[in-house]
Amino acid sequence: MKKIAIFASGTGSNFQALIDAVKAGSLNVEVKLLVCDKPGAAVIEKAERASVPTFVFHPKQYASKIEFETIIMNKLQELEVDYVILAGYMRLIGATLLSAFQNRIINIHPSLLPAFPGKDAIGQAFRARVKEVGVTIHYVDAGMDTGPIIAQRAIQLSDNDSMEDVENKIHAIEHIFYPETLESLFNK
Ligand code: GAR
């Protein structure tokens, strides 16, 4: 069974969806660690409730990305983590982790990449008045939401969808699509 670490910065609804899928037996992985770069983020409480160990850090307390990524890398190696799963981790992964986990870092992004990379992808798509939005799961490289695509799922919008409707539709897809995609990638 693959061992994963989940990286997240915020609410953690995708973290929770992965945990729920593990509990339900539809995602066969061992969640070894939550890594969170935002002390106080809601995802931390979700991890504690699920008895997942956490490593919470404040990037500003380190001299460089190399310094905090080296600490994270050592923890991941100690725990024999196979894959790093980003679930709303709002920070670029640096060379230290990229080279230690080549082709083993995966991200979910709430758009049909290459459209709308970066922050507030849902807001960007809503303001552009596109008729189709979606979710992308991809390998992580040094760019912002640029690595090779593993899977995408599209959703059609209707003219009267509010920003909140669009958010809800995208999150609902994410919560099903991420565990499903990881399960088929790891346990085909
Ligand atoms: C998710 O929609 C995820 O796709 C997005 O952040 C949100 C986190 O929500 N990620 C990115 O935008 C990455 N560029 P959550 O904390 O409730 O899982």
From TrEMBL:
<feature type="binding site">
    <location>
        <position position="107"/>
    </location>
    <ligand>
        <name>(6R)-10-formyltetrahydrofolate</name>
    </ligand>
</feature>
<dbReference type="InterPro" id="IPR002376">
    <property type="entry name" value="Formyl_transf_N"/>
</dbReference>
<comment type="similarity">
    <text>Belongs to the GART family.</text>
</comment>
<feature type="active site" description="Proton donor">
    <location>
        <position position="109"/>
    </location>
</feature>
<dbReference type="InterPro" id="IPR004607">
    <property type="entry name" value="GART"/>
</dbReference>
<dbReference type="InterPro" id="IPR036477">
    <property type="entry name" value="Formyl_transf_N_sf"/>
</dbReference>
<dbReference type="Pfam" id="PF00551">
    <property type="entry name" value="Formyl_trans_N"/>
</dbReference>
<dbReference type="GO" id="GO:0004644">
    <property type="term" value="F:phosphoribosylglycinamide formyltransferase activity"/>
</dbReference>
<keyword id="KW-0808">Transferase</keyword>
<feature type="binding site">
    <location>
        <begin position="90"/>
        <end position="93"/>
    </location>
    <ligand>
        <name>(6R)-10-formyltetrahydrofolate</name>
    </ligand>
</feature>
<feature type="binding site">
    <location>
        <begin position="12"/>
        <end position="14"/>
    </location>
    <ligand>
        <name>N(1)-(5-phospho-beta-D-ribosyl)glycinamide</name>
    </ligand>
</feature>
<feature type="binding site">
    <location>
        <position position="65"/>
    </location>
    <ligand>
        <name>(6R)-10-formyltetrahydrofolate</name>
    </ligand>
</feature>
<protein>
    <recommendedName>
        <fullName>Phosphoribosylglycinamide formyltransferase</fullName>
        <ecNumber>2.1.2.2</ecNumber>
    </recommendedName>
</protein>
<comment type="function">
    <text>Catalyzes the transfer of a formyl group from 10-formyltetrahydrofolate to 5-phospho-ribosyl-glycinamide (GAR), producing 5-phospho-ribosyl-N-formylglycinamide (FGAR) and tetrahydrofolate.</text>
</comment>
<feature type="domain" description="Formyl transferase N-terminal">
    <location>
        <begin position="2"/>
        <end position="182"/>
    </location>
</feature>
<comment type="pathway">
    <text>Purine metabolism; IMP biosynthesis via de novo pathway; N(2)-formyl-N(1)-(5-phospho-D-ribosyl)glycinamide from N(1)-(5-phospho-D-ribosyl)glycinamide (10-formyl THF route): step 1/1.</text>
</comment>
<feature type="site" description="Raises pKa of active site His">
    <location>
        <position position="145"/>
    </location>
</feature>
<keyword id="KW-0658">Purine biosynthesis</keyword>
<dbReference type="InterPro" id="IPR001555">
    <property type="entry name" value="GART_AS"/>
</dbReference>
